[in-house]
Each structure stands twice: as structure tokens, then as C-alpha cells.
Design a protein that fits this description.
The protein is of the alpha+beta class and 129 residues long. The chain has four helices and six strands; from the N terminus they run H-E-E-H-H-E-E-E-E-H. The protein is 26% helix and 20% strand. The N and C termini lie far apart (41 Å). It is found in: Cell membrane.
Length: 129
Amino acid sequence: MKNWEDLLEGKPVVIIEDGELAWSKLNNSNMTEFEFFMELRLRGVEQLGQVRLAILETNGQISVYFFEDDKVKPGLLILPSDCTQRYKVVPESADYACIRCSEIIHMNAGEKTIMSALCKSRMDEGKSG
């Protein structure tokens, strides 16, 4: 059973850990992904692989803890599309973030969709259903 303080004030929620976004926790918060990404950009985040830990505090503020520069990982780019170069075809073999769920996946040069296997299967199910 939750204590009264948790019921009244809520608890801080870890939204990003080791560059991985917990979509379900973000979706259960009172903040949209657009608001969340804006708050991260205001703190200097360009892509989620820079973030060691991001906590949505009970007052709605976000605490962000960064990886050291030499520990930054690949991650979902959160800059507006007009600020970055977007690809329809993977330019070089490397690790990329899925455009839907942010999972880091290895892609080979020439592949056309930067999407995890799970997201691809969900899209295929939607097309056939």
C-alpha cells in the first residue's frame, strides 16, 4: 500500500536510464514526449545516449545526469528535424536508435528503415489486420 506522501505528492520517476527511454513510464506521466524532449534540449541534450539518468521529479521538473564525453552511447536524436540531417537509407553500418521505440540496433549500410524488429512486426501486424 502506498503511503500518504506518495499519494499526495507522487514519487520521482526514472524516465531515462543508461540512454534508454522508458516509454511506458513517460506515457504514464503528465508530460508528453514533446514536452519531455523539449526539457531535455533546454538542458543541452541532443540525443538520448548522452543521458545516464533522467528523473521526472514530483514538481514536474526534470533532473538530468550526463555520461562523461568518452562514455556517451548511440541514442535517439531529439533535435527538431529541421536542425539535423535525416536519412531514408542508412548511410553507413553502425548502431542507430529505432525511430519508434528508441531501442539501439545495428544497421547495415543501405538498409531502408531504422526500426527495431519488434516495431517492424507491430507495423506488419497492423497492415495485415
